[in-house]
Amino acid sequence: MAEKVKPYKDSEASKKEQVTEMFDTISKEYDGLNRVISFGIDVKWRHKVVKIVSGKQPENILDIATGTGDLAINLASTNAKEIIGLDISNGMLEVGRKKIASKKLDGIISMVIGDSENLPFEDNTFDAITVAFGVRNFENLEKGLSEILRVLKPNGIFVILETSVPTNPIYKFGYNIYSKFILPTIGKLFSKDKIAYNYLSESASVFPYGEELNNILRKIGFINVKDKPQTMGVATIYTASKA
After folding, report:
1. What distance in Å separates the CA atoms of residue 86 and residue 132, rounded to the nearest whole number?
2. What average pLDDT score do residues 231-236 get?
3. Alpha carbon distance 198, 4 (integer Å)
4. What are the backbone dihedrals phi and psi of residue 161, each rounded to the nearest 5 degrees, phi first?
5. For residue 48, how many C-alpha atoms fall within 13 Å in the half-sphere facing its CB?
6. What is the pLDDT of residue 35?
7. Highest mean pLDDT among 18-32, 71-85, 188-202
8. Beta-strand (E) ranges in 164-241?
9. Is there a contact between 117 and 138 (Cβ–Cβ < 8 Å)?
10. Residue-wise pLDDT tens digits, 156-174
């Protein structure tokens, strides 16, 4: 079970409410800081997700925790007829809508405010569902994953891109130094929300990854569960399907 880390430890608001507030606050700076913090490697990881999804030739795609829509925009290259980006932060969605409009993709991609644990869609709706750097923000991980399984079509594909911790001791040491000290320092220097990047670092360090997350996916009912570590294990792409 994922440890429940909240952005604002002194607040009595739920994790969901706190995450919404945090992303609303940092929405306008998020893209720029994200590129700096990941050294731009996250772009490469998203392209790998798109390649996996493209192989299934989906008609429609749901991108959960879409944020400012980076992955949803990339997924347009799959030639899907409909892509829905869903997020709980309207601030992030507003940034995403402007990006989508500038690329003239608003006829394909729609941005919807919504809760991953109570998806506003019928059973067996989507050929493909993606989540990039979002599952660790779920208030209830298993409930969110169960909702994803519900709205995924049989034989559809579910792809997660999420941070993970390297297993190699040398890489792990470097990762811990970066995530515990350097990342929060960058956030404090350049972010409007001085706490946000502490949360992003801490939540990544305690979130289940590798076989632990694979087993949670299997418990929920997903099949063909696989994980593919990326860049020395600092991120992992998970793929799963529905019977």
Report:
1. 12
2. 95
3. 14
4. -115, 120
5. 20
6. 83
7. 71-85
8. 223-230, 235-241
9. yes
10. 999 999 999 999 999 999 9
Nearest to 115 by CA among 133, 139, 92: 139
pLDDT score at 2: 54
From 146, 147, 161, 141, select the one nearest 66 (Cα to Cα): 161
> In whole angstroms, what is the distance from residue 135 CA to residue 69 CA?
16
Asked whether the beta carbons of 214 and 60 are under 8 A apart, the reply is no
Q: What is the rounded average pLDDT of the residues 15-38?
A: 88
The single-letter code of the amino acid at 172 is: K
Q: In b/e form, how buried is each residue of 70-102, taking b as 16+ CB within 10 angstroms? A: bbbbbbbebebeebbbbbbbebbbebbbebbee
Three-state SS sequence of 102-142: HCCCCCCEEEEECCCCCCCCCCCCEEEEEEECCHHHCCCHH
Alpha-carbon distance 229 to 210, whole Å?
Answer: 8
The position carrying tokens 């991953």 is: 116
Q: What is the pLDDT of residue 3?
A: 60
